[in-house]
Amino acid sequence: RKEVEQDPGPFNVPEGATVAFNCTYSNSASQSFFWYRQDCRKEPKLLMSVYSSGNEDGRFTAQLNRASQYISLLIRDSKLSDSATYLCVVKAAGNKLTFGGGTRVLVKP
Amino acid sequence: GAVVSQHPSWVICKSGTSVKIECRSLDFQATTMFWYRQFPKQSLMLMATSNEGSKATYEQGVEKDKFLINHASLTLSTLTVTSAHPEDSSFYICSARVVGGPSYNEQFFGPGTRLTVL
Question: Strand B67-73 to strand B76-81: parallel, antiparallel, or no bridges (unpaired)?
């Protein structure tokens, strides 16, 4: 079983719609959680950290469910520029980041 | 945010040659840098953790004699792929950890180096 699992997608989303997807992690000792965005052939870039109480950054909302060991990302009012691969990233003790395989999102006009 | 550069951005080499990739933190000091590898349609896999002034820590399954890491200064880490083979063709990405300021402990990624071994 992979340490961090994601639905690879793609999620085809009409422009303006809402899309949400989850990520599950196997290490119950995981301490920090992040969503990164990666465009094709580019490096990943931090989208947002995920906090226990859930947090929002503009059109993006992240949730953490420690009991079920998953995190989620919701994108409202999708823009064409939101098309990317979204990487779920988990950090246990120390500084090692473990990446999920990514969820590909395609926003179409 | 902090800026990390990599050089070269892409390289094509013949099988059996060695390739050196540089990772630099441009506006901050990084005592710890990380090297990742990403194969097509797969996620980033951590190869090793590079610590300034000491030996790198390699992840399980990564050959330390094949992937030489040197972190000689607080702003530069290098990864040398020795005797490269076609199966080493991949996207190599480094990251550097910020140890102070508002971005404390965040990792910033370099733009990556695409290696193609013929």
Answer: antiparallel
